[in-house]
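Morning run. Coffee first, then this:
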Amino acid sequence: MTHPFCASRAAGFRMASIIPISDLRGAASQERREALVRAAIAAPGGAAGPLQDGRGRSMRDLRISVTDRCNFRCRYCMPKDVFDSDFQFLSHADLLSFEEITRVARIFVGHGVNKIRLTGGEPLLRRNVERLVAMLAGIGDVDLTLTTNGSGLARKARDLAAAGLKRVTVSLDSLDDATFRAMNDVDFPVARVLEGIDAAAAAGLAPIKINMVVQRGVNESSIVPLARHFKGSGHIVRFIEFMDVGATNGWRMDDVVPAAEIVRLIDAELPLASVDPNYRGEVAGRWRYRDGSGEIGVIASVTQAFCRDCTRARLSTDGKLYTCLFATGGYDLRGLLREGHDDGAIARGRRRGLAAARRPLFRGPHRQHAALAQGRDELHRRLIARRLSRPPPTPAEAMNAALPLHRPLLTDAARPATVDVEAIDETGARRVTPIAGEHPLTLYVDKQELLTLMTLGGAPEALAIGYLRNQRLVASIDDIVAVHVDWDVNAAAVTTRGGLRDLEARTARRTKTTGCGQGTVFGDLMAEIDDIRLPGSATLSRTALYALLECVRQHDTLYKQAGAIHGCALATNRGDASEILMFVEDVGRHNAVDAIAGWMWLDRVDGADKIFYTTGRLTSEMVIKAAQMGIPFLVSRSGLTQMGHEIARKVGITMIGRATHRHYLLYTGAERFIAA
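And here it is:
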């Protein structure tokens, strides 16, 4: 039974082998193909269980790209100078077949996915796409939708509805014909898209959602006219902040019209009121017209990133599974499908794909600036396990939202957490087993070499930032301009604002320690600790402590898989409950502490109401770092040192050791602990 304070863990995937499809593409006749498809649709899906990604988020939506081709050349997506006549699109043999798509979709639906969206490119360019719709509709109770540019919708709407499609989303960036033709860059008239919307409505594919990507200086003058045109129609217009979708679209923050500004523009002429989301993870903020004539949506993909509640998995045209729009690499399901593996193997592959570290798809300055503005960089996504660490903005806050706070530019540089090696067990049998990764990472600050850390490599940017924070080498996250990690040379280069001119003098003053981790403490930290006194108003209940220990016990750690790892967690402290916001493991526990400290700086997280948990011993350096992060509660499953004990008493930390299940020893700060 899952503890009530912890998120449920994904059930094991025990799938029945139903249909090997290695010979499907070469089936001798259409009749045989159709028979196999019917069998695939009708076959039982095996034991169902919740589907989660590596950050504990339930995957409820599956986006399936059915083609990489599009007949538009929108400048923010597929600009003509890149996607020209020489561009090599995928061959038909490289695409997933309809049968392969259906099989993967059925496995996903069997594990909790309840919404499937067909995308492209332009999905209506895929020949006989309505046949795929019919196959997917036969899987069961699933919300089956499609996103289209509307160019072929007028002739396809009736057939799609008859096949079982429930709704459509249509991209429409302006009602002004000249603006629309310029944006699609193929001189396609807006009237034909409007015809497609009308045909979809007549076919019952409603409510229709209409997406407008808003780009400053291009089509922001179309915001209010588009809202007014569809007001009262039953259709829902969704305004999307212009975002970086690759290094080809010339993305700049100056081109973004923030969601708050979009709402203000519409509200000034067509008064709005905020509406609660339909479900957790809904990407569009909802606003209704005060006169009751409908609603709009605003997708703040840049200024109010929604990664922490993302519920989407993506299946690419060539059969790779991604959990993020910005992923560089997906898990190859097509290979498993065509090698004849059973559903169990495919399900396990899907699980690995969902659990894999997310890596941004697009590199270069445009992607990095998008990450700065959105907080959607790789580090932000990797550290998103905290789920709801902050409440959503109120309507007033959304209406008056300012530009994001400064975030340094961060590269994508996560290393695999484990490496498979061959070992021999007690029976003499050879076994492939995972062991922890370990890599040297030399830290440079403004081109000056500082030291080399041995790290797992899971969050190198956060580690670098947190190390500089905890060693008091930088005073604020605003001092850091960028962190660039390059594993080809095993280096992390930090650029600071204006440079740290006294870095050499400060690093010359160091206290060498014998504990595990970095082994050095720079500067005069022992002197600085005299000035730290944590407030005594925060309290920790025994119930919340037990809840945290149970969450840690159930947490799917790398240690359980590979060993040789130290772990640290930052957790909430809410009365009688506790929730892990972030769990970091590394080959040195101080690295894990520093990575959490770096994340706290990046996301402006206050430690005053948090609990810090570590698997390692409570040494003086551990206590000092907790004090620097302003965290009043320090919990360990291990013991403590004399010096750590003395510092904890001095600064006012409630220190709890030997903490496992319902056992603990309260060493310091008993006045904050509620044992009742």
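Residues 589-602 form the longest helix (14 residues). Good start to the day.
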